[in-house]
């Protein structure tokens, strides 16, 4: 794996983590319950080379940007609503000035209004020049903010499509098509079967035992990613 053209070695990962690459964790439980949220975000700024004064100012600017009242600095995580805690987590990524922000399932269990708010914050980061990777099981959430969507199956990328491809039906892989049809607003048809165990992956296509397009050729070798209709797909039967 490479980042900005150079391999991500263990040493380089340690140097970049929390600075050039920032993580927005999946759960607000990652906030330290024994420290005020202002101290936590300020500490992140200081770890990124800011002086105490500059880090405090960065916290004030970032909290104001995300409409967190000034008093929020003195609050502990348990004193915040779910939406406020999410905004604090986003703030930790903002004060780093990281080039890449990885948001790991930032919306599960949230009220729809808070989901939209959180996604809008991520979109703002992207529009401000950051790279943003949103990891989610919620296709609808991804399509609200994403430029491109990478679909994984059994730990492997099976398709990389423009977000607009979902609306136009320009989907290439049978698994992506099945996921789209399974949504309530579409056909609401479940995908039959189960994903293979990581300990016993088939030698051929990982989706072969659930795929309506399967042929004997699919079970010979794992398909390579191919460029089809302006997107990447790992399927020998995807039509150009």
Number of DSSP helical runs = 8
The overall average pLDDT, rounded, is 92
Which class do the helix and strand fractions yield? alpha/beta
CATH topology of the largest domain: Rossmann fold
Sum up the overall morphology in one term: elongated
Q: What is the chain-wise order of helices and strands?
A: EEHEHHHEHEHEEHHEE
Q: In percent, how helical is the residue content?
A: 25-40%
The number of domains is 2
Structure explained in plain terms:
The structure is a single chain. With 240 residues, this protein is of the alpha/beta class. It folds into two domains: 2-138, 3-Layer(aba) Sandwich (Rossmann fold), CATH 3.40.50; 148-233, no CATH class. It contains eight helices and nine strands. The protein has helices spanning 10-16, 37-47, 52-65, 82-94, 112-127, 139-145, 164-168, 174-181; strands at 2-3, 6-7, 21-24, 100-104, 131-135, 148-153, 156-162, 226-228, 231-233. A four-stranded antiparallel sheet has the order 6-7-9-8. β1 and β2 (6-7) form a beta hairpin. α2 crosses α3, α4 packs parallel to α5 (112-127) and α5 (112-127) runs parallel beside α6 (139-145). The two termini are 29 Å apart. 29% of the residues are buried. The mean pLDDT is 92.
């Amino acid at each position: 794996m490479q980042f900005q053209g150079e391999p991500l070695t263990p040493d380089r990962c340690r140097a970049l983590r929390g600075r050039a690459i920032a993580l927005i964790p999946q759960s607000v439980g990652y906030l330290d319950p024994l420290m005020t949220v202002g101290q936590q975000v300020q500490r992140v700024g200081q770890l990124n080379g800011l002086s105490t004064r500059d880090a405090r100012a960065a916290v004030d600017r970032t909290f104001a940007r995300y409409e967190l009242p000034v008093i929020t600095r003195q609050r502990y995580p348990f004193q915040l609503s779910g939406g406020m805690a999410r905004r604090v987590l986003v703030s930790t990524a903002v004060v780093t000035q990281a080039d890449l922000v990885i948001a790991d399932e930032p919306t599960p269990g949230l009220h729809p209004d808070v989901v939209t708010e959180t996604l809008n914050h991520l979109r703002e980061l992207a529009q401000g020049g950051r790279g943003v990777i949103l990891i989610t099981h919620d296709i609808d959430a991804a399509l609200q903010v994403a430029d491109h969507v990478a679909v994984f199956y059994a730990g492997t990328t099976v398709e990389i499509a423009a977000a607009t491809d979902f609306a136009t039906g320009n989907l290439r892989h049978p698994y992506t098509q099945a996921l789209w049809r399974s949504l309530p607003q579409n056909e609401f048809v479940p995908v039959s079967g189960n994903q293979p165990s990581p300990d016993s992956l088939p030698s051929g296509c990982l989706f072969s035992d659930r795929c309506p397009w399967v042929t004997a050729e699919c079970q010979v070798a794992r398909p390579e990613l191919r460029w089809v209709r302006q997107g990447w797909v790992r399927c020998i039967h995807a039509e150009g």
